[in-house]
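step: validate -> pass
step: tokenize input -> pass
step: predict -> running
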Amino acid sequence: MAFIKRQHYQYLIASGAGLLIALLGRFTFASRYFNDGGGLLMLCFLLLVPMALGAVTAHFTPRTASLWWHLVWGPSLTVLVFLTSALLFHLEGMICVLIISPLFTITAALGALIYHFLTRNEGNQSKTYVVAAFALLPFVLAPLENLLTAPNEYRRVENTIVIAASADVVWQHIVRVPPITAQDLGPSLVDRLGFPRPVEATLSHEGVGGVRRATFERGVEFLETIDVWEPQRRISFSIVPNTATIPPTTFDEHVTVGGRFFDVLRGTYELEPAGPGCTRLVLYSQQRLSTRINPYAGLWTGYIMSEIQRRILEVIRRRCETESAGVAVALAANQKARY
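step: predict -> pass
step: emit ->
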């Protein structure tokens, strides 16, 4: 018995044709010619190529297939095959595949819908012209987009936590952060995405001009030069990745911190009173995002930065509260011993 039934061949042809368009776009936009325009982060690749994939898949899908298969299931299956192939053949890393998968799935379905709307009452020749236009449009418009520069957008991500400890205790745990284990941090999606876990933060000397070395797993290190030092109130610093220590395989080129598309510029801790014996600790950072899909990319970078900051704050909270509880127990024991 044949592995694939004969009546299913046309579905394979439809998916294969869409996959061919996507792979052609992948290798074309990854070439040096389009590097200055953003390469795989160009709109022509991120939006028009999946739209072409959807239109081509819908064009070759059998007429007997349901409307849902034409508009949703067929294009989505082709996107899945393309992204899986990109992973298996190491064309893209897991983080990039996860980021673009919702965008590709939606725009592929949109391409199929527009194709269906334009050709629903047309003959075969007109349908061929329309699908050819979809397939060619990304490559025709790409040279024009290549002339444009991506905008710079500056974003702030803020996390807050209330700690049952005095400002003095909290301050000592933020200026320097002793080694952090994976058990301290707990599980998180950012680990599965391949981002290194924070390890520790050292300080050259206290005060303005001091340099914190924030180290992460796999050789990632950031140099944080302090320019605001207000004990028990506020510490702020500029951030520069130590590129000499970061292996080139740690990050995908599209999500490299300090790269052309994304950078973390500043970090700030602020301490505020939060009732008797409690301190509110605020951690916020400023990032630069330089893509043509900043609103969409910002959703991902915002989530990732917020999750990293949240986990660090949780570690600080537990350590501060453990220390405060230990001090309280010791004081109580001393007072009891006196009497």
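step: describe -> Residues 6-145 form one domain.
step: cleanup -> pass
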